[in-house]
Design goal:
Radius of gyration: 22 Å
Strand order of the largest sheet: 1-2-3
Helix content: 25-40%
CATH topology of the largest domain: CBS-domain
Shape: flat
Structural class: alpha/beta
Largest sheet: 3 strands, mixed
CATH architecture of the largest domain: Roll
CATH class of the largest domain: Alpha Beta
CATH superfamily of the largest domain: CBS-domain
Number of helices: 10
Order of helices and strands: EHEEHEHEEHEHEEHEEHHEEHH
Strand content: 25-35%
């Protein structure tokens, strides 16, 4: 199987020169954490812009300053197994697909799960690939704190538990993105100062209005935002069955429950990729 048989051919991108606002608008529309950047008027790949970079640089408006230019890419004719190894090595969820140096598609973890693994007969257990550690959050945690927890832990999705330690939901970065707003803020900067008594010079001063748009995370709690209708699996669920459930419910991860209904682990779609190369 080759990359061209699995990849997404219709790609959303942003162009340089451009602004952070344009990148935010695209990310919110497609519900993704990263989007490719191309040179305006061409299909030439410049790099990727990631939601995390926008969070970390709220004052930078020029898209060119926010682009990650050192990105891994794959060719349209590469073998899928080679592309999977590239994804895992780069620790990313999507790879630009190039043909003759031009962007012709994107290969995502979701593409491989939906169009490859879900269609195969992989009998290995999904629990063989589950995360060895679980980072859960209390459902009363402010989502502003959750953004930082995700950043520190490297997890894009966190199980949510109530005060009794029961699994009650799951929250991921797309949930936070959906409820966050793009806010415009303007401030005036005086380029030349005035001395006392110079009020008559106001109209002749050099002034500049600085406007920026940034993502504002609301003052909400995890329970207000999390997904409450959970799709779970057991330790006996196979890799292909887990992939089929992810495709059916359009999810990226699923908790693993014990026979008693207790949370014992979580498997993400990217974890299942290892079944193709190990």
């Amino acid at each position: 199987m080759q990359v061209k048989g699995v990849m997404t051919k219709e790609v959303k991108w942003v162009e340089v020169p451009g602004t952070r606002a344009e990148a935010l608008d695209i990310l919110r529309k497609i519900g993704a954490s990263a989007v490719p950047v191309v040179k305006r008027g061409t299909d030439e790949l410049v790099g990727m812009v990631r939601l995390r970079k926008l969070f970390e640089n709220p004052s930078e408006n020029q898209l060119a300053m926010l682009v990650d230019r050192d990105v891994s890419t794959v060719s349209i004719n590469d073998k899928l197994e080679e592309a999977v190894n590239c994804l895992l090595k780069a620790r990313v969820r999507r790879l630009p697909v190039l043909k003759d140096g031009k962007l012709v598609g994107m290969l995502t973890v979701q593409d491989i799960i939906y169009r490859a693994i879900a269609e195969m007969d992989v009998e290995r257990l999904a629990s063989d690939f589950m995360r060895p550690h679980i980072i859960a959050v209390w459902d009363g945690t402010p989502i502003k704190a959750v953004v930082e927890i995700m950043d520190l832990s490297g997890f894009r999705a966190l199980p949510a538990i109530d005060e009794g330690g029961n699994l009650v939901g799951i929250i991921d970065d797309s949930d936070i993105l959906k409820v966050s707003g793009v806010e415009t803020e303007s401030r005036m900067s005086q380029m030349a100062g005035r001395s006392e008594g110079d009020s008559w010079t106001w109209d002749s001063e050099n002034r500049i209005y600085i406007t920026k748009r940034e993502l504002k995370v609301p003052d909400k709690l995890v329970r207000d935002v999390m997904t409450k209708e959970l799709v779970t699996i057991t330790r006996k669920t196979t890799v292909s069955r887990a992939a089929q459930l992810m495709r059916q419910h359009r999810i990226e991860q699923t908790p693993i429950l014990s026979a008693e209904g207790k949370l014992t682990g979580i498997v993400q779609d990217v974890d299942l990729l290892r079944a193709l190369v190990e």
